[in-house]
Design goal:
Layout: H1 4-9, E1 12-14, H2 28-37, E2 40-45, H3 50-62, E3 67-69, H4 82-95, E4 101-107, H5 115-131, E5 136-141, H6 144-155, E6 161-163, H7 170-178, E7 182-185, H8 196-200, E8 208-210, H9 232-243, H10 247-262
Helix pairs in contact: 4-5, 9-10
Binding site for a divalent metal cation 2: 139, 164
Binding site for a divalent metal cation 1: 16, 18, 103, 213
Keywords: Hydrolase, Metal-binding
């Protein structure tokens, strides 16, 4: 368990958190206070669709040195109106800078009705990322290899980013790293049957950023409950155990990686 004095010395970055979501309406101040106390200094906010933009930007306005928004259309939000949603994304990107285009990608877990539209939205947003010299943050579920193949031609043109919520095998990790992308590691690392620790054992920390994906995917011992950014300490602890290094080393390297990829 990470000691209190170790937390004080650590500087953590949550590279993927939805703290703007309704799940935090009633106790946001306490959630933020706990995160700060745990050493979390920066929070990177992925967009989902136009409905969350106002809440996301409100956090940035209130805490400009801590909260950094992205802009993008989540694959699960790709529906009949995805063209209009993409126009909103493009409008925001043309008007101001964002730390990344995200979260974008492919998700064929729940529904494949809009599979082709998901590919179209993904490709168009990767083009926008190149146009605005921005990294991307990728969400992929039940479509990892298809996602990697979609990214390849854009990576060859200089696109970089993060494969958020990585939980796959060593071969997949190598493909992602070879593209020049980082692995976003969160609560799944702490799950007993995930085998993610084995995958990460031989992967350099230089290729990893940490995330919570709050309010989703809480780490053990909070699995099944609402996630929050302070729980990043459980992910740091587990990754340090897996790698056989100190929690300070994990925190320092992964935080530097996040700042480099996002330019913040």
């Amino acid at each position: 368990m990470i000691k209190k004095e170790e937390i004080c010395e650590m500087r953590l970055i949550d590279s993927h958190t939805h703290l703007y979501s309704k799940e935090f309406e009633k106790d946001f101040d306490q959630v933020l206070q706990r995160a700060r106390a745990a050493g979390v200094t920066k929070f990177f906010l992925p967009a989902i669709d136009s409905e969350v933009i106002e809440d996301m930007l409100r956090l940035e306005e209130k805490y400009p040195n801590e909260f950094f928004p992205m802009m993008g259309l989540h694959p699960c939000s790709v529906k009949e109106n995805y063209g209009q949603e993409l126009q909103i994304v493009e409008k925001y990107l043309s008007e101001r800078s964002f730390v990344a285009v995200g979260e974008i990608g492919l998700d064929f877990y729940w529904d494949t009705t809009f599979k082709q539209q998901q590919f179209d939205a993904f490709h168009k947003q990767m083009e926008l990322a190149l146009q605005y010299h921005s990294p991307i943050v990728i969400h992929t579920r039940n479509g990892m290899q298809e996602t990697i193949e979609a990214v390849k031609p854009f990576a060859s043109r200089g696109l970089t980013g993060i494969f958020h919520c990585f939980g796959d095998n060593s071969e997949t990790a190598k493909q992602i790293i070879d593209l020049g992308f980082l692995l976003g590691i969160g609560g799944v690392l702490t799950y007993k049957n995930a085998n993610l620790g084995e995958t990460l054992r031989d992967i350099s920390l230089e290729h990893i950023v940490l995330e919570t994906d709050a309010p989703y995917l809480s780490p053990v011992p909070y699995r099944g409950k609402r996630n929050e950014s302070s729980y990043l300490t459980f992910i740091v602890q587990k990754l340090a155990e897996v790698k056989g290094v100190t929690v300070e080393e994990v925190a320092e390297i992964t935080s530097a990686n996040a700042e480099k990829i996002f330019g913040q």
